Sequence to fold (935 residues):
Amino acid sequence: MVRVEGFHWRYPSFGDLAENPWTLQGIDLEIERGEFFGITGPSGAGKTTTCKAIMGIIPHGLKIPYRAYNHHLKGSVWVDGELVTGLDADGQVVDGRPLGALLGKGIVAPKGGMVLQDPETQFLRMSLLHEIAFGLQLLGLPAQEIEERVRQALAMVGLGDLADEAAYIHPNDLSGGQKQRVAIAAFLAMRPELLVLDEPTSDLDPQGKSEVIETVRMLHERHNMTVVLVEQDPEILRRFCDRIALIDEGRVRMVERADDFYRRANLLSDCGIYRFEISEIAAGAGIRLGDDLPTRIEEALACFPLNLDASWQPQDVAPAGEVLLEVRDLRYVYEDGTQALHGVNFDLYRGEVLALLGANGSGKTTVAKILNGIYRPTGGTVRVLGQDISRRSVRSQLPRHVGYVFQNPDHQIFTRRVWDEVAYGLKNLQVPADELAERVQQALQAVGLSDKADEDPLFLGKGQRQRLAVASILAMRPEIIIVDEPTTGQDYQMVSGIMELLEELHAQGNTVLIITHDMTLVANYCQRVVVLLDGRDVFSGSPRELFSQPELVRTTRLCAPQAISLSLAMRERNETFPLLLNKAEWLHALKGGKYAL
Amino acid sequence: MRSFLFSVRRDSPLAHLHVLTKLLLVLLLSVVIVRFIRTDNPDPLGATMLLALAVLLLALSGAMRWVFRSYLLVLFPALLGMALTWVIFNPDPGSGVLWRIPVYDGRIALGFSLRLGIFLVFAIVWYVVRKEVFWGLVGGLALAAIVTRLVGNPSITLARFDFFHPLAIIVSQRNLVVAVTKAIGYGAMIFVSLLLVMTSRDIEMTGAMRQLRIPYVAIFFLSTMLRSLSMALTDYTTIRQAQIARGVSLRKKNSLQLIADLAYIAVPLTATMLRRSNEVGDAVLLRGFSMQTRNPTEFHEVHPFGWVDGVVLGVCALFVILVLVFRLNFTQWAGVLL
Fold:
């Protein structure tokens, strides 16, 4: 269905900027008709660029300076036997020099569709009905057929009950999972033979993620559609894909069947790709399943020892010390009448790392914005450092005590120099100049950006921008730091960097509240967890207590990490088996206490 | 359901009107309002009736909440300021003067006075200590008034010369009526315009443009712009919240500092919009749109003109004729003499 041969691509640079390097350096791929094909790789590896090349957006949707194609493009892309992009290197001779002539049919719509990472950005119309109908209108289909196809597409993605009201529903008013399903439906209505999904679920809660991909798999099976899925999550890739390609530095490093892909531990590790926790534990403890590392719980059950030294049982430390934050029966109603919080209760103790969990729309970010003084609570009591924030005078001063790192670093970079960016908040706090310089330096050092102090933040990588956002809050030295979805849409190396940073912050005695969908992060770094469901707290306790209750995990749309799931499976066979929460605890237990926790 | 930037009730009377009817309604009523607020023959009752009609329609559309949120806080002080300005700068005595306050005797005196000294010293000291202008001026004036009332206002005049002519604030029945009529009239004009902005959807606009046979590329451009506008507003809200989280509202600031704070928003807003525009561009191409797209299928966009549109436009036209041609003045018609 898709054939990419030796495809090279270099993005055009504008103005006086230096020439860009080649983003793709000879991509070779063959995807069969009806295949569910996965692509993974670190950020900046060229995954999205490859997808755009398959769809023909690259190069047909871009302007090439002076039409010098030879300078930007090599190789070819074929879809369904038709040349999408090719190059006649000797064509278009100007002043005796060939600039290259572009060949191929161009953008593959409607034969192919591509769902982007952020559904809101790709919505082009302001009603659900017209959003899905738009491509069909462009195809010039009769109105009656458009009507039928819209209804079918909505039904296919499980949103058939919205069909009658579709003309009055704004796509942005839907939940995160529904938005992404609408984005898929918009292409399904065009009955594509090829559907490319570029990290379509990175903003979704764990179960929402599975539901969206499950929808795609069902469509793939029923209609023999070819699906290309770009994803970081190994569980999703293995569960849904027939084959997976690893792209790194603009090249395809390997293409393997899904089961075999994650056994290539060394290559995955070299490229900084997510691996299964079980594989990492087995590799750390020297456990093998035949010649391979286990990747599934069933495989681990066959090769992990069932009897461990029972004298060591992991213990959770009960929260103690000064209560910095006290939330009681917190309620909040948005201006449009939506009740986001129906009564939330929890405490935050000095020096702890607390995770605030819950499905999309459960009220986590609303709580964070109340704690930072952005929203005023509608009801209930919130005390920060003993002071009631219902008083305006207290609320207006909250940014001094509660720092809030927003999810998207692009929303919080206000200056064109890294140093100025960290100093921005301090100037608002009216910190004296000498102290300001010292604090900026310390904060940049803490996040490893000291050498970037004079650079333009907008030209930093996403991981570095995220670190800069943390530094900007860190410099203000708040008693509590709230970090909203710090790992969303980031690759393994970036997530590892953020995790290390959080660990350092905790070691330095900072109190951190993390909002996240990343359960591994919770199991590794958080002492306590508060889970919200539909605007109410339904659980408060340690991650071990949470993940050992599968029914609670399911009803709150969370997902237990592999490490503790394996412990639970072991306990079914041996009741005395310790409840091991994460990789560190497993290695500690497997190595007889010789692994540092 | 959502309109361009706000939300509106699906079953509201205006939801049944064609967007061009709404546009004509706004234009015709605005012409009538211009007639109602004429200085030589004001019609406060007519202006009030139109204001009430606009408010009623907005309320029936479920849009009053947005009006209150977005406009009323600005609108009332602006209209009040306009009425006061009219009274001050239009000293028309009419048939009877209610108050006459001399403010300038037609001569300029150069010199010093205790009042001036107190005012200047207070304002300067306030600025040095608090870095604020407004309250320095207000406090200076108040202190100067109190002190000179108690101890008199000794002064030294160095020179005196004639300039312009004497000025007085004259509050007469006539200029009061004109000022109030103008304030109500402009208020009505704004509310009538809001009817269009608050109750129309992008689909109505694109449908109307298709009826007018405007090239589809232009229609799509406008539709995408409207869509992007709501996205930009969402981004602005988030960025502003991020700015608050960085302590931007921790202390009181003067107007210049507030403007500087807003200017800082330009960096993330521009970066976000650039990123979004790239993605929107890709999304457009992926659906198969191109500059060669000519005439896509019409699908629930075009809203035909109905009898309701005819009736509304007919009544409106009749109203315009009565007011402009037959010089109908509701205030006089009701027997109120100005």
